[in-house]
Amino acid sequence: MKTKMKADGPLIIAGRAFGSRLLLGTGKFSSPGVMKSALKASGTEIVTVALRRVELDNAQDSILSAVDASRYLLLPNTSGARNAEEAVRLARLARAAGCEPWVKLEITPDPHYLLPDPIETLKAAEILVREGFTVLPYINADPVLAKRLEEAGTATVMPLGSPIGSNRGVKTRELIEIIIEKSNVPVVVDAGLGAPSHAAEAMEMGADAVLVNTAVAVAGDPIAMARAFKKGVEAGREAFLAGLGSPRKAAEASSPLTGFLR
Amino acid sequence: MSFYDVIHSYDWDEIQKEIDGRSREDVERALAARTLGFDDLLSLLSPAAEPFLEEMAQRAHRLTVQRFGLVMGMFAPLYLSNVCTNRCVYCGFNAGNAITRLTLTLEDAETEGESLRRMGFHTVLLLSGEAPQIITEEYLKRVLGRLRPHFSSIGIEMFPMTAGRYRELIGQGVDGLTVFQETYDEASYGEFHPEGRKSDYRWRLETPERGGAAGFRRLGIGALLGLNNWRVEGFFVALHASHLLRTCWKSQLAISFPRLCSSAGGYEPCFPVTDCHLVQLICALRLFLPDVGFTLSTRELPALRDCLIPLGITTMSAGSHTEPGGYSRPGVGGAQFEVADGRSPGAVAEVLRRTGYEPVWKEWDGASAFV
Q1: Does A163 touch chain B if contact means CB atoms closer than 8 Å?
Q2: Fewer CB atoms < 10 Å away: N or C end of chain A?
Q3: What is the pLDDT of residue B310?
Q4: Which among A109, A167, A218 has CB closest to B70?
Q5: Domain B3-370 falls under CATH 3.20.20.70
Q6: Which of A73, A126, A139, A140 has the alpha carbon at shortest distance from A102?
Q7: In chain B, whose CA is at the least distance from the CA of A85?
């Protein structure tokens, strides 16, 4: 008997609904024009912007002026922050400049692999949640940390698939599976997704959304790649909802042991 | 263990012999490796790697784009003073050179800063000669007070200081420290730096570690190309970088590639470095150190600078003046070296865009935290 596929609803983060499950970053693009076209082609509705890069008080800022705030939720990130204090300061600066109180919390004391600091991230999340921010923390694929952040009141958790910009895909698969299983807030797989198939894999696993930047920004044709990621995310989501079969080592006859009964 | 102890377990001549003995097969093995070790680096720095330059350049380009994106960080130097107590044989500020000595007043420094801001810069590098009697703690504190409101990120390239002094400067809004070892060869270091505090090889060598311990966000190192065999120098730069990546793990590391050019005093380099060799050095180090920033100054000619953009460079200066006060009153004070790329920052930014790179003027909000 065939069962009908579950209907998909929107992605809900902190009570707000989004039609797309692909979040896009704005770093590393060759020009604001290319970035703008890539955002459009991706169908994304949430766009992250590095606070350290933008001039919040300058309407001509090349990134801010290229992102249409009526179309996208501008999600400021605290990239470059090495500790809770710096991240909190950046988030407050953004709010003071008129941004919505949403923040993607990134605290990366090691500037080379850009791996997130769990201790400082939890500390900053507690402060920012208390101050009324909607906090989306970037974390290592650590299931206990994910629960601690959820308890602290973060709106999502954003575990990494592999180090930022590495294009290596979902190397933390087994831990992300646990995070997805246990989480009461949306799980957004962030960082390391280098190909649409990686994004599809994360979505097939049951991630609520994925965030991509480098793979689109530095592709030979960023606009076509943005479109490809859109399809990858949609395909993965659809496959998850359709119910994937479990992988098996060898081909199996449908009833090798009990066939004689029929 | 400090880098001084590390470097003592290496012998300059042995490294040179290793490099000179590398074969085509060694280079091929290095290029096939997933991650490169020091042995691979020696092969890529060797004469045997010269026929592989195009392949190295393409890989360097791919790695850099992957890690840093299609963007170029922009900064400008601001010289506070050309007074110097050292007698470095290659430097325009050599105490023995008859140049017009000048130290900016607080007003001058602010005027220079305003000029740079009008050009679009948010990141500034403050420089001076080694003159702690003139560039005093109080002077620097006041200069920083004047400049902080204008810049989002401030670096220094001055005389080496103690970690305690660096902590104070970080507290006053400085986030980057650059110090070039000039040559890593302790045996010949003294010939180039015969007098002044700079003649102390170890004090200088350990400066980036003191800076890292103090908490600078950015550390810059480099060798002055032309003083010694660039292949061996390149190896030691990489060795130093590897050490700093482990010991100062919270600091973003950058390597500069200053090539000796003419200055007051008319010093001619004993080991001139050709364009080909400069490219080989940049590419070899990029393949070995994919996550380290590479900086290019205006010492190089426009045509070469434009071609180096895609080969691994991640930050560059533009429109630079190397004489104190040069942005508001060009040519009054003596310059440290002759600028070879005299194009305006706007013109360089235009070249970057045409090449497919977005110039990035602001990369941090450090200084603003102190306003």
Answers
A1: no
A2: N
A3: 94
A4: A218
A5: yes
A6: A73
A7: B369
- Out of B66, B71, B363, closest to residue A167 by CB: B66
**Any A CB within 8 A of B61 CB:** no
CA distance A232 to A51: 29
Write the ipTM. Answer: 0.76
Spans of all domains in chain B: 3-370
The tens digit of pLDDT for each residue in A78-127 reads 999 999 999 999 999 888 888 889 999 999 999 888 899 999 999 999 99
B307 to chain A, closest Cα gap in Å: 17
CA distance B91 to chain A (A): 33
How large a percentage of chain B has pLDDT more than 90? 83
Give the pLDDT means over successive 10-residue stretches in chain B (371 positions): 94 96 96 92 97 96 94 96 89 85 94 95 95 93 96 95 97 96 96 91 97 97 96 98 94 95 74 94 97 94 94 95 90 83 95 95 76 50
CB pair distance less than 8 Å for B360 and A53: yes
Helix axes A118-130 and A143-152, enclosed angle (nearest 10)? 20
Active-site amino acid positions of A: 104
Among the partner residues A29, A52, A165, nearest to B66 by beta-carbon distance: A165
pTM of the model: 0.87
Enumerate the domain spans of chain A.
11-245
Average predicted confidence (pLDDT) for chain A: 89
Contact flag B71-A29 (C-beta cutoff 8 Å): yes
Residue A1 has what pLDDT?
47
Three-state secondary structure along chain A? CCCCCCCCCCEEECCEEECCCEEEECCCCCCHHHHHHHHHHHCCCEEEEECCCCCCCCCCCCCHHHCCCCCCEEEEECCCCCCHHHHHHHHHHHHHCCCCCEEEECCCCCCCCCCCCHHHHHHHHHHHHHCCCEEEEEECCCHHHHHHHHHHCCCCEEEECCCCCCCCCCCCHHHHHHHHHHCCCCEEEECCCCCHHHHHHHHHCCCCEEEECHHHHCCCCHHHHHHHHHHHHHHHHHHHHHCCCCCCCCCCCCCCCCHHHC
The enclosing H or E element of B75 equals: strand B71-81
Name the least confident of A33-37, A187-191, A248-252: A248-252
Q: How many angstroms separate the CA atoms of B354 and B352, rounded?
A: 5
Inter-chain residue contact A53 with B362, CB threshold 8 Å:
yes
How many contacts (CB atoms, under 8 Å) link A and B? 67
Contact B365 A90 (CB under 8 A): yes
Q: Do A112 and B364 touch (CB under 8 A)?
A: no
HSE-up of residue B251 (Cα within 13 Å, Cβ side): 30
CB contact under 8 A, A29 and B70: yes
Once rounded to an integer, what is the mean pLDDT over residues A149-174? 92
A218, B69: Cβ pair inside 8 Å? yes
Question: A27 vs chain B: nearest CA distance in angstroms?
Answer: 7
Q: Which CATH architecture has domain A11-245?
A: Alpha-Beta Barrel (3.20)
Nearest chain B Cα distance for residue A14, angstroms: 28
Contacts of B362 in chain A (CB under 8 A): 52-55
- Check residue B365 and give its pLDDT: 80
